[in-house]
Amino acid sequence: MSIERSTVLRGHQAGVTSLAAGWGHHGSMLLSGSDDQTCRLWDTRSGKTVRCIRGFSDEITAVTFAGEHNFVAASGSNIYVYDQRTLEVVSQGPEAAVCRFANIDDGEVQALSARGDFVAFVDDNGRLGVCDITDDPLASAPVHFTGGHDALAGCVCMHPELPVISSGGFDCQVLLWDMASETTTGSFVADSSDSCDDTRRQMFNPPFAYALDFAPEHGLQLVSGHADGRLMCLSDETVFSWSSCHGYSISAVRFVSARPEILATASLDCTLALWDAESILYPDVEKSSGATVVVGDKPNLLAQVELSAKPDTLVSSETIPVIYTDQGSDIIAYTIL
Q1: What three-state secondary structure class fits 287?
Q2: For 101-123, how does the pLDDT look when each residue is reduced to its tens digit (9 = 90+)?
Q3: Do 110 and 77 form a contact (C-beta atoms < 8 A)?
Q4: Could you tell me the pTM of the whole model?
Q5: Burial class (CB in 10 A: 0-12, 13-18, 19+), 256
Q6: CA-wise closest residue to 220 among 234, 231, 232, 238
Q7: Contact at 8 Å (CB) between 264 and 257?
Q8: What are the φ and ψ backbone dihedral angles of 135, each rounded to 5 degrees?
Q9: Could you tell me whether strands 292-294 and 238-242 are parallel, antiparallel, or unpaired per DSSP bridges?
Q10: What is the rounded CA–CA span in Å between residue 60 and residue 65?
């Protein structure tokens, strides 16, 4: 297996902060947000920007597709929802949004995740909330769940089928949330003492939870990437931990939609890696319910490529084995061969 650089998407004037890949009739679309305070919708077949939202007062911290025709962008403490069908010109301002949700207490939104018409978000106060984009924002505010992280929450992921949301924070915790009760139902902690190498542990950041993704078609299985380069996996009530998957912080984790047997990771050590998902979801070690099992050997590494800059985000196409990551202000497509 190998990774080949295939396409470059150019248009942003500052670093890309967030990417989202389309699904269904959005399948050929890619959404991006940037420090240049713009949000861009791309046609990946032509490599061209088809819509650009300019004029936000803050950088774009997160983007996602939602519902049948909508895309969503977070800037500052606001969440903007756009309907592609109403955007008739390429370049428009934030006021083109069909609705805007304001986060309570002005917490800055750090990450978004959507399923259907629901959009989950986390903020720098450590809280998780959910918006229903079909609601009137003048009549309803985002629903904030009870509890939260003890520090900034930087990543969130909605389960593709179950009423479950996960979030990760700078308190080194990964939380599981129940959408019905709007409370946490479980958690695990990345403990710095779990490292297999004391010298290595002292060199790195605390194991903040930077990235999350649920395994497709595997029930409640979750993989997280951390600031000390480790991967962790919640599988069948056991938490597994690999302390040396990357040489520095893992900034993004994603199961490849068109090849779900592959887990892709991007790291601030300027590498993009592909892993055998089965070796992570079902490691050949003894399970221990309620405890973290430290796995000495790395998961099965399938391919790796060096990047020219530190990546912040990573997504995959729904229909073809292509992954997209940021390299400064550019978006690079890599084909899995």
Answers
A1: coil
A2: 887 667 899 999 999 999 999 99
A3: no
A4: 0.93
A5: buried
A6: 234
A7: no
A8: -75, 155
A9: parallel
A10: 14
